[in-house]
Amino acid sequence: MLPLNGLYAVLATFLPERVATWISIASPVVVFLLWLWAVVTREEEGDHVPVSLPESQLLSVSPFFRSRFDFLRRGFELTGQSVYKFKLLRNTVIVLSGESARREFFQAAGLDLTAGFKVLSGAIPMMPGVTSDITARRVSTIHKRLSTAQSSEALAKLLPRILEDSRKAMEQWGKSGVLDPFEQVSQLIFQTTVRCLATEDLADNEADVVRLRELYDRLDVDTTPASVLFPWFPSPSAVRRLLTTKEIFDIISVVVDARISSGIVRDDTIQMLVECGDDRMVVIGFILGLLVAGARSTGTTATWLITFLGGHPHWKARAAAEAAELLHSYSTYPTEHLPSSAAAAAQPSTLSFLSHRLACVPLEAWESETPVMDALLRETLRLAQPHAAMRMNTGPEIQLGGKRIPTGSFVMYPFSDVHLSPELYPDPWRFDPDRPQSKMPFSYVGWGAGKSVCLGQRLARLELKLMMALFVLGFDCAVVDAKGRPLNALPRPNWNDSLTCKPPKGSCYLRYERTGL
C-alpha cells in the first residue's frame, strides 16, 4: 500500500485512484531524468569557455538558416563578447570575431572544412561515394585534377572558348533592352563554368546546361533546416533534394559514360580525367561538385560586378579603357574582318569581332596587366560574398580568440567581421575599388585565406575578367528599377541570402545598348 504523500493526496482528489498512484510514482522519475539531463548537458563555464547565447536553442534553428547574417551579428550584440557559442540541436557552434581570432582560425590545423559545411550548410548536393563519404585519397585526386585544369596551358586553350560562350549569351540579349543581371549574367557564367570544368559535349547542349542550372537552383530552394539537420529523415524537402541530385547525376553520368565508351578524344577537362585513369565516380563527382561554384559563388560575383559597373559609370569607363589598352598592345586580329561601315569607329561594331580580338590577348596579360579589373573583383567580392567560414574541430582541443574549442565542436567565422568592418573599410557598404589595402594580416579573405583558399580562383578570375571586358567594350548600360526608371542608388547586397546575396526581387535591372551599331 503506497503511502498517501502530499502529491498523491492532491491527485486523488481529482483523479481515479489508479491514475493518481501511477502519476505519483512516475513524477519523481521524470524529475530525476530532467535533473540528470540538465547535469549532463550543463555548459561548462569559465574564463576560457565561450559564453552561451542567452536564449533557447530551439529559437536559433530557423534564424541560423533563414537570416544567418542578422543572427550571427545579433549574437555578438546579445553576449557582448567577441566569441560566443550556441546549440544547433546536438551540435555546439562557436562563432568568432576579431583580428586575433581570425588569424588563429585561418591558420589552425585540425579544422575540417568539408565536415563543417556538410553539417552546417547543406549547400553541396550529397550523393554517397560521389560528393559525400568519399575517401581522403579521392578528395586529393580531385584537388590535383582541378589544379591541372587551371594550368597555364589549359587556361590558354579555354580563353577563346570562354569568350565565345560569353559572346553567344550576350548576342541573345539583342541590341538593346532591359535584363535581370541576377538571371542572365548568372546563366552566362554557369555556361562558361560547364565549358571549363565539364565536357565540350555538355557545354554545347544548351538545353542540358539550362536544365542543370535550374536543378542547382532547386537544390538551394530545398535546402531547409530539416533537410540539413535531419538528412536521414524523409521530409518533403529532403526527398526533393534527393530526386534533384539524382537528376543532376543522371545528366552528367550520361555524357561521362558516352565519352568513356566512345573512345572519342576531345580537348576538354573530362578528357584529362579519363586519360589520368580516374574511375567513373571520380569523374562524375568532380563535375557534379565543382559546378556548384559556377552556380553560386562565381555567378554571384559576376552578377554584382555587372550591377556595380552599371551603377558606377566611372568604373565602367576605367575597365573599358584597360581592356582597350590590352587590345592595342596585343590584338593582331586582321582588320578586314571589321565591317566597312564601322571601320572608322572607335570601338569594334560586333561582339564577334570584339571577342576574337580579346582572344588574341595572352593569358599572362589577363593575369598580370589588369590592375583595374583586379580592384573591381576585389571590391565586389568584399561587398557581395556573404560567406561564413564553417569548420569542424576534428581534434585535438585548441584555443581560438582565447577560448577553448573542444574536439567535435563546430567553428564559424563570418566574413562580414572583416569585410564590413568600419575600422578596416571606412563606410564599408560603399563601393570603392580605390580603397587602400590594409597591411593587417587576413584583412581580406575574398578568396579564402591561410590553410583554406579557393582552389578554383585562377579559373574564376579569368572567367570574370573575360566576361567583364567583353561587356564593358560591347555595351553601354545603366541600372534601372522595374519600370525602367534610373536608380538613384544601388540596392545593398543581401547578406542574409547566404548563397547568392540577391537584393529584393524586382529592385534592380540593367538597361543596356550595344555600342558601335
Automatic annotation (TrEMBL):
Pfam families: p450. This is Cytochrome P450. One of its GO terms (molecular function) is monooxygenase activity. SUPFAM superfamilies: Cytochrome P450. The chain crosses the membrane at residues 20-40. The keyword Amino-acid biosynthesis does not apply. One of its GO terms (biological process) is sterol metabolic process. Belongs to the cytochrome P450 family. Keywords: Heme, Iron, Membrane, Metal-binding, Monooxygenase, Oxidoreductase, Transmembrane, Transmembrane helix. Its cofactor is heme. Heme binds at C454.
